[in-house]
Structures are given as C-alpha cells and as structure tokens.
C-alpha cells in the first residue's frame, strides 16, 4: 500500500530506481513488485463497465428506486471548493503526522486514563459532559417506559456528577486501538443522531477520523456512510447557510466522501442532485 494514500505500508519495496529497465523481464522479486507498482499507477481509480442497458428494458418487470440516503446541500450550503481542498490537505497532513510519529508522540504525551471501551455511559460523560449526558438519559427515558432496574441503578450513579466534556487529546487518541476507535465512533454516531451536532462532538468526530486507518472493513464503511447521512440531514435542517455548524458538517462530509472514498455520499455526485 502506498504511504501517500494514508495507509500503512504492508511491504516496503522502496523507490523505483532511476535506471530501472522497463523492457527487461524481472530477475528478482523486488523488480517484479516494482513493475506491479508501476502498473497500479496506470490504473484508473474508478472503473465503470460500459453496459448497454437498453436491451434489457423490454424485460424490465419491477423498477426499484435506490437512494443512499444522502441529502444534497441546499443552495449556498455546499462547501467552497478551495476551502474544501485546503481542509482535506490539512486532514491528510494530520493523519500522516500522527501515523508517522506515533512512537515519538507517545514519549511526549503520557497516556491519559479513560473509561473502558465497553462503558457506554461513562464515555458519554467523558466526551460530552454531564449536561449532554442528562439529555441523552432523558431522551432514553421518554422513549422507553419499561427501564430495567439495572439501568435505573446505573443512571443513579451518574445523575449527580457534574463535569465538563473532555477534548480528544493526543494523550487519549494515540493509545486507542483501531477496534476502540471504531467502537467510539459508533457511540458518537448514536449521540449525534440523538442530540444533534455540537462543536464538542465535531472535535471528537474529526479526531476519530484522523485516527481511523484505511482500508476500511465493511462494517466500518457502513458506519461512515451512516455518519454522512446524519450529517447531511442535520445540515439540511439548518436555517441559514451562515450558521456556525455548516462548515464543520461540510468538513466531516468532505472527509468521508473524498478521503474515505465514499464518493456517492457527496454534493458533487450527480445522482444526489437528481434526487
């Protein structure tokens, strides 16, 4: 995998020599891999099969409209192309710096104590603070009239706690495994859907996306697509294009569509404009 694509190098074959003979057959395994690397660069990023669909129209019996759930930006809400390019470059640089300097950064930033990854309620308090946590609890109570005794006991342990949200510091993010990153991302998607957007959650979502590595597992890809749907819905519900949440929501949407290759979850994807 290429380092410039934000992925870990699985097997480093080094740079292709300047005097590399492209016509001679490979004599070593490294020379063969150099040729594979060259062939990869010639391949288009996206390949679409050119199929004549008209010959199947006479046999069409059922028409199913497929929509990915992404809501195209209202006029004036879409990100400025120059701003978008600048932010994506900054995001890529942040990922490269964190990935390439992890050992050095760990020496500089000691590990901070955080909740165990399965402690959903404690992470809610840690990331969002006590005020948002209570809102989540109240929302849960209003949706469920038969709360279990264990849940009631758990809630009582936290209801008197007053705390501010904790930012996603390097002393936390550097020590989270990919499994924990993905789990925490799923928590934040639930909270985003339940509470709406806030700058606190925006910081955490950005930090988690910086820490998330490619290639994506199918379940992780599904998480990101769900996050994109929710963010596009939240953006659509904002009354003014000058609202302070428009840019951070656009940033998250741009990162998912451009960096993580979910190109159909984008304002530029033509099918979204039609629908």
Automatic annotation (TrEMBL):
GO terms for cellular component: SMN complex; spliceosomal complex. Gene3D superfamilies: 1.20.58.1070. GO terms for biological process: spliceosomal complex assembly; spliceosomal snRNP assembly. Its main location: cytoplasm. Pfam families: SIP1. It is found in: Cytoplasm. Keywords: Cytoplasm, mRNA processing, mRNA splicing. Coiled coil: none annotated. Transmembrane segments: none annotated. InterPro entries: GEMIN2, Gemin2/Brr1. PANTHER family: GEM-ASSOCIATED PROTEIN 2, GEMIN2. The SMN complex catalyzes the assembly of small nuclear ribonucleoproteins (snRNPs), the building blocks of the spliceosome, and thereby plays an important role in the splicing of cellular pre-mRNAs. Part of the core SMN complex. Belongs to the gemin-2 family. This is Gem-associated protein 2. The lineage of its organism: Eukaryota, Metazoa, Ecdysozoa, Arthropoda, Chelicerata. The gene is GEMIN2.
């Amino acid at each position: 995998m290429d380092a410039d694509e934000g992925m870990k190098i699985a097997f480093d074959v080094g740079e292709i020599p300047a005097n590399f003979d492209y016509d001679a057959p490979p004599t070593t395994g490294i020379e063969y891999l150099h040729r594979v690397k060259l062939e990869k660069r010639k391949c288009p990023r996206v390949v679409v099969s050119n199929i004549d669909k008209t010959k199947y129209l006479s046999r069409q019996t059922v028409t199913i409209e497929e929509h990915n759930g992404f809501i195209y930006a209202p006029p004036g809400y879409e990100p400025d192309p120059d701003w978008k390019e600048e932010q994506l470059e900054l995001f890529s640089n942040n990922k490269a710096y964190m990935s390439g300097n992890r050992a050095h950064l760990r020496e500089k930033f000691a590990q901070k104590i955080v909740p165990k990854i399965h402690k959903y309620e404690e992470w809610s308090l840690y990331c969002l603070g006590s005020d948002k946590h209570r809102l989540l609890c109240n929302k849960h109570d209003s949706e469920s009239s038969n709360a279990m005794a264990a849940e009631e006991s758990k809630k009582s342990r936290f209801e008197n706690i007053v705390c501010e949200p904790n930012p996603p510091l390097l002393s936390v993010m550097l020590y989270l495994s990919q499994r924990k990153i993905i789990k925490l991302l799923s928590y934040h998607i639930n909270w985003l859907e339940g509470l709406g957007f806030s700058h606190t959650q925006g910081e955490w979502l950005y930090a988690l996306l910086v820490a998330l590595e490619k290639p994506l597992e199918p379940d992780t890809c599904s998480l990101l697509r769900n996050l994109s749907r929710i963010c596009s819905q939240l953006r659509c519900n904002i009354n003014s294009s000058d609202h302070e949440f428009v840019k951070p929501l656009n940033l998250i949407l741009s990162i998912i569509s451009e960096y993580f290759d979910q190109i159909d979850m984008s304002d530029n994807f033509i099918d979204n404009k039609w629908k």
